[in-house]
Design a protein that fits this description.
The chain has 254 residues and is mainly alpha-helical. The protein has a single domain, classed as Zincin-like (2-Layer Sandwich). 61% of the residues lie in helices and 7% in strands. The protein is built from 12 helices and 5 strands. The chain has a 3-stranded mixed beta sheet with strand order 3-5-4, sandwiched between helices. Strands 1-2 form a two-stranded antiparallel ribbon. The longest helix is centred in the middle third of the chain and has 20 residues. The protein is globular, with a radius of gyration of 21 Å. The termini are far apart. The N terminus is likely disordered. Bound molecules: zinc ion. Zinc ion binds next to helix 6 and helix 9. Belongs to the peptidase M48 family. InterPro entries: Mito/Outer_Membr_Metalloprot (IPR051156), Peptidase_M48 (IPR001915).
């Protein structure tokens, strides 16, 4: 075990510590770091829930009678469960053009995004984000964030354990929820998921294309609005075209 713990410290370039300098709680943290390599999927989902709860506490969440909440509730009324996964939806009343979904089935939509998208376009974007959850991209991203967090604990923790994450640790994970970047293949698969979601529920699949085109325009407009969703979702124009091509093949547009 000593050998493995030392390897961890060396491999990640942390300050040089000999094993003898480590106190028992640091050793425990080291063990937890190693255990994180075998984190169960359920644990990852629980940590995702913790991170979202912290995000909710730190952002202006629209109340139940807020027009934004009422609009969102209307849009998703038929989609409280998607592909067998119960989803909880909330609006953050911030101007950023963004939305995200997490492994525990939380979907958060930002006011700035709602202001520029039609109802169907919002469904298309939420469908894409939910696609990342159903395809386990979100869980895998959280798992690697937890591994990085646990590794940091080896150097920083004086109290031991990852069982209940500290506020700052959860905050770091929350940042990761927003900054998660997926591979091109994962993005295409999430796009396909959204397309299928729209099609099977009788919505116009072109909403997926037009939502991407709006994002691309926002970004090119230089109007100063931060289009965060684009930094993790590049190539909006190409992806819109891919949707249009598929819709044409499917006979859904001419
Ligand atoms: Zn995506």
């Amino acid at each position: 075990m000593k050998c493995i713990a030392s390897l961890f410290l060396i491999a990640f370039g942390l300050p040089t510590l000999t094993f003898a300098q480590l106190n028992p709680s640091l050793m425990q943290a080291g063990l937890d770091a190693i255990n994180s390599a075998t984190l169960s999927n359920d644990q990852v989902v629980q940590y995702s829930r913790q991170a979202v709860q912290q995000m909710d506490a730190q952002n202006p969440v629209a109340g139940p009678n807020d027009p934004y909440t009422q609009r969102l509730n209307r849009i998703v009324s038929r989609h409280r469960t998607v592909s067998g996964l119960p989803i909880n939806y909330k609006v953050y009343k911030v101007k950023d053009v963004n939305a995200f979904a997490t492994a525990d089935g939380s979907v958060r939509v930002f006011k700035g995004l709602m202001d520029i998208m039609t109802d169907n376009e919002l469904l298309a974007i939420m469908g894409h984000e939910i696609g990342h959850v159903i395809n386990h991209d979100s869980r895998d991203a959280m798992k690697s964030a937890l591994r990085r967090s646990a590794i940091r604990n080896v150097a920083a923790s004086q109290s031991g354990i990852v069982g209940k994450l500290s506020r700052s640790q959860v905050g770091g994970l929350a940042d990761n929820l927003l900054g998660a970047s997926f591979s091109r293949r994962q993005e295409s698969e999430a796009d396909d998921y959204s397309y299928d979601f729209l099609k099977r529920n009788g919505y116009n699949v072109m909403a997926l294309a037009t939502s991407f085109e709006k994002l691309a325009k926002q970004n090119g407009g230089g109007g100063g609005s931060v289009t965060q969703i684009l930094s993790s979702h590049p190539d909006s124009k190409a992806r819109a075209q891919r949707v249009r091509d598929r819709a044409r093949r499917d006979g859904l547009v001419r």
